[in-house]
Amino acid sequence: MYIRKLLLTSILLSLAVFSFAQQINNAVISGYLKDASGSPIPGASVKLHHTSANAISNTDGFFSIRNVHPGKHIVTVSAVGFKTKEQSFDVKSGEEKMLNITIEQSISEINTVSVIGRSASQEVNRQAYNVTAIDAKKLYNSTLDLSHALDRVSGIRVREDGGLGSRMNFSLNGFTGRQVKFFLDGVPMDNFGSSFQLNNIPINLAERVEVYKGVVPIWLGSDALGGAINIVTGNNQHSYLDASYSFGSFNTHRSTLNAGYTAKSGFTVQVNAFQNYSDNNYRVRVNVADLKTGEYYPRQWVRRFHDTYHNETIIANVGVVGKKYADKLLFGITMGRNYAEIQTGARMVSVFGNWHRRGDIIMPSVKYQVKDLFIKGLNFSLTGNYNFGHEQNIDTVNRRYNWFQQYEPNNGAERERSMYKFSNNNGIGAANLSYKINDHHSFVLNDVYNTFNRKGKDELFPVDEKYDQPRKVSKNILGLGYKFDYSDKWNTSVFVKNYAQRNRFSQSYNPSGNWGDVAYKALETTFNKLGYGIATTYFLLPALQLKTSYEKSYRLPETEELFGDMINLEGNTDLKPETSNNFNFGVNYQAHIREDHRFSFDANFLYRDAKDFIRPMLNPNQTKQTNGNLAAVTNMGLDGEVRYSFRQLFTAGVNLTYQNLRNNTEFEDGQKNRSPLYRDRIPNMPYLFGNADASLFFKNVFKKGNNLTLGYNFLYVHAYYLSWPGQAEEKLEIPRQFCQDVNLVYSLANGRYNVSVECKNLVDNRLYDNFTLQKPGRAFYAKLRYFISK
Q1: Global pTM value
Q2: Residue 22 confidence (pLDDT) above 60
Q3: Helix, strand or coil, per DSSP, at residue 279
C-alpha cells in the first residue's frame, strides 16, 4: 500500500513540476561530432563558454546540452587526437538547436594525458571513490552476460552453482553475496526477483558497468557493506535497433532486442527484451552408489539430467525526454518469467530428478529526472517500482535419485514436499536531490525506502498455519553528502548515512509439550545505525592519480537471509546487522611512448575490519546453505591491473587480486579458551585469483569497413579451503583452477552486421565454485548481431 501511494505521489509530483516548469523558456542544443571522413567521434568534450554546462558525445558522436539561456553562445569541442574547435551560435527562447560540427585530427604529438575528451567510463574512473568502469559496448558482440563480464575485473569473483541460470555468489574484495549491492541506473535491484538476475542479463543491456569497491557514493542509497555494482543502461536520445541471437553447447540459446525511438518532440519509446534457454546437460565427475546393487562407483563421468533453465524478460518504457519540465519522464513495465529445474543441493552428493521452480515478475515503474529545478544547479530525480511477481517451489515426487538417474521411493518428496507459491510483494522508492552551488561546492540528499511482505500458500497443506505467519521487512537509507571540487587536480567528498530496518516475523513453539502441538508467537526486531565516510583524489600529474577513501558502513540482513529462498538457502531470523570499517588507497598512472605504445597501471590497497560478519555456511545436515554471524573478520588485500596497447592493432592486460580474509574472533560464545579457528583463513572464499586477456584487431578485412578481432582470456584461481582447516590430515580444499576462453569477431559495414564465435574453457579443465559444485567444461558458442542507429 505504501509503495502504491508512493507511485501515485511521484506521478502527481511529476505533473506539478510539469506545470511549473512550462514557464521556463531555456533552449536545448544538440548535435553530432564527426571527423573529416564523416565518422562519428565518441567521448569528445563539449563545453559552453562562461557556464558549467557540458556534455560528452556518445558512440554516435551525439551530444546534448539543456537549459541554455537565449542569446549568443560559444561551444568548445575537444577530443584526444583532434584539434580543439570553437563554434559560435545564436539560440532563441525555447528553441531546440542542432549543431553539426566537424573537427580535424591533430598530427602533433600529445605529451600528456588530456583531461578532456574522455569517455563516460573514463570520467567515472576519475572519481575519488575506488571505482572501475567497464565499457560494456566493447563486449556487445560477445556471448557474455553481465556477471561473466564482471568476473574479469580485479577484485571480483563470480561463483555459480552450475550452468546458465544457476544460483550465483558474487564476491568483491572479500565481501560476498548481499554484502555487495546491485543497482540499475542508480536504483537498487533488491526486488527484481529470480527472473532478472545478474547472470541472466545480457551484456547488451548495459552501456557501462560501474564497480565501486569498499566505499559507495551517497547517491547510490543503500546499505552495501563492501561495494556496489551500478549497471548504466543506454540513455540514447535517438532511434536505434540492436538485435542478437546466440546458440551453443548444452542446447543453449540466447537472444536480445534493444530498440528505441525518440521523436523531435521528445516523445520516446524504449524496449529491452532478452531470452535465455539451456539444458545445462554438461558432464560432471562424481562418486555414485548403485541404488539397486549398493555397489560403489568412484569418480564417474555422468551428465546432468535435470537442470533445464529458461527465462524471458521484457522492459518497456514510454515518456518524454529533453523537455524543459523534465530531462526524463518515463512510465515503464518490466515483465518476465523463468523456469529452473534443480539438479543438486548445496553439494554434489544431493541429486534431484523432478524438483523445480517457477517465477514471474510484473513490475510497473516511474522515473523522473530534471535539471535546474526552480534554480540553476538544483537537480532532482525520483524513481519508484513495485514487484507483483510470484515464485513457486514444486517438489511432489516421492523419489530419491542418484547420478545414474536411478531412483527409489522416498518419504513423500525429494526433499520437502511442497507446492508453495508465494509473492514477496516488495517495492522501492528512491529520491535524489543535488545542488551545485558553484564550481567548487555541491550537496546531495538521497533517500531510499524498501518494503517487503512475503505471502503464500501451499495447496498440498491448505490449513498449515506456518504459511500465514508474517514475514515483513521495511528499510530506509537516508544519506547526506558534500563535495568540494578545488580544480581538475583535487576533489573531496564527505557523507553521512542513517540505516533503519524493522523486521516482523513469528517463531514456532510447543505450548503443551505434546507431540505435534505447534503455536506461533509474533516477534519484531528493529535496527537504527549511523554511518559516515570520506573520499578524496589528487592528480600529482595529469597522468598520475592518487585516491583514498574510508567508510564506516553497515549492512542490514536481507530478506532471503532472514527467511530463506525456499530452495537451497535456509533462513536465519537471528542474524544481526554487520558493520565494517573500510579503508582504500589507490594509484593510477597512464603513460605512452609517442602515440604508438600506451600503458596504464592501476593498483589498490584495501583493509576491512568487519564485525558481526554475515557469511554463508552449510546447515547441520549439509543439505542447504544458511548464513551466520562471525564476531570479527579482517581483510587486508591488494588488487592491480596493467594494460598495454599498440596503436589500434593490439591490446593486452593482466590483473591480480590477493585478499587475506581472516577470522578475528578470539573468544566465541563467552568461552574462556581461545577459539581454535582464531586467525584462520575464512573458508569457501577464493583469496588469490586473476585474469589475463589479449586482443588483435585487423581493419578493412576483405572490404573497407569490415573488421576482424581475435581475443583470448585466461582465468586463474588458487586453491582454497572448502571448510575450516582443522587438523592437517582433515583439510579439504577446492583445487587450483585454470580457464581459457578464445573468441573471433567479424564486423561488417562498420559494425552493422556482426558474427562471433567463442570457445569457453578451451582445454576442458574441471571448474568448481561454491562447496565444490561443478561448472561446465569446454563449450562452443556463436552469435549473430545486427545494429543500426539514426
Answers
A1: 0.78
A2: no
A3: coil
